[in-house]
Amino acid sequence: MDNCDLEKLCVSAGSLHPDFTPEVTDYTVTVESGVDAVTVDVVTSDCAASHYMLSGDGSSLINLSDGLNRVEVEVVAEDGTLKTYRVDVTRLSAKVSQLSALTVDGDVLLHPAFSSNVYEYKSIVPFHCEAVTLRPEVQDRRITVTVNGTDASRRVPVNFGDTALQISVRSADGSNSQVYTVLVTRELVPLPVTFTDGKQQLDYECPVSLSAFYRPVSISHSDPKQTLSRPYSEMLARRPRVHPLSACPLGDGWKVVERDLDVEMSAASVKCFFVYRGKALEGLSGAQLLRRKGSSWFVLKVRGWSDCLKLEREEEGCDRVMRLSELGSHVALCPHRPTGALDSKEVTDTSWYKKLFASAACLEIETKHILEVRNWEKRLQTTAGEDNVNELCALAEHQLKLYRQHLPQPGM
User: Is 62 among the domain residues?
Assistant: First the structure.
């Protein structure tokens, strides 16, 4: 008989990759650092065939050292046909302090994709997500893993803007450690935030957007300290590299991340977005805004009182108060949030809209264009000696550059 296949091949620790089949002769196994030896269990398909361990002392017990250990099993058929099976057993070093995998629950993507040798990642979650769960994995159970100093499997609350999560990995023998960082960014809340404390409303207001700070950063060495929402600071200082408010030049490292302010804001009390929202009143022709506060009705602008048929009692808005970090998840389930998509026909089909906006007469002011030559434009062309628009713009940029060069430098 020429059958030199194995019917069974397994090791006492770890799992074969790929799974054993008689036709495949090469396998790999990874075992933990605490495994000093493995036993190789072999059964031939043909009882007349024989097998020999070509590794170690020829016994089925294989002593392991750190790293790669190759185990070879030679099978000899009855007619002398030979086949060799190889198993590469990798014993992890007790000094390894790396993750083998890292994911975030909820199909949240990491950027860049995970690699054991990359230690910094970014991730974006929806604005209604108030906590995340990281899933770090290691090949050796003796390796210790914590997230922000706590159990790695616990849900970690995230701030209103950015949250830095630190994954600490300590080797099995405690001699080495490594830190992985995941910066979790919540998407911007699409509605204005109202703090219960009037002072906080002012303290946490971005001077550019006039809304609550989002991922706040301050400008280094600014006196008094000037803080902006990060998207606006990057947008305003992206090309000119000047202070967005004072127009002074910005040096390297001008942006200081205000992580503590983000944490402080996230713990502040806010009102629901829909605290003032009520049911629209029917039968009031031309009513643009009608709200009730307490026992009084407030009408900001109403046209056509003669067409008023009836007033229905307005429904109260949401009176919930919560932390800013909890606002997104509350809004997603708030019973006072608008239902369904807004229908523009509810406005465009009204008689007052058609009268004021849908007629051709209201567009006359926009369609009657007048060509006018202004004296100041002619003087500018004469002074500059140039009438090409692009050349004039380039000249203006040059003059601005000269102006900025003559501005006093900080500390001088």
Answer: yes
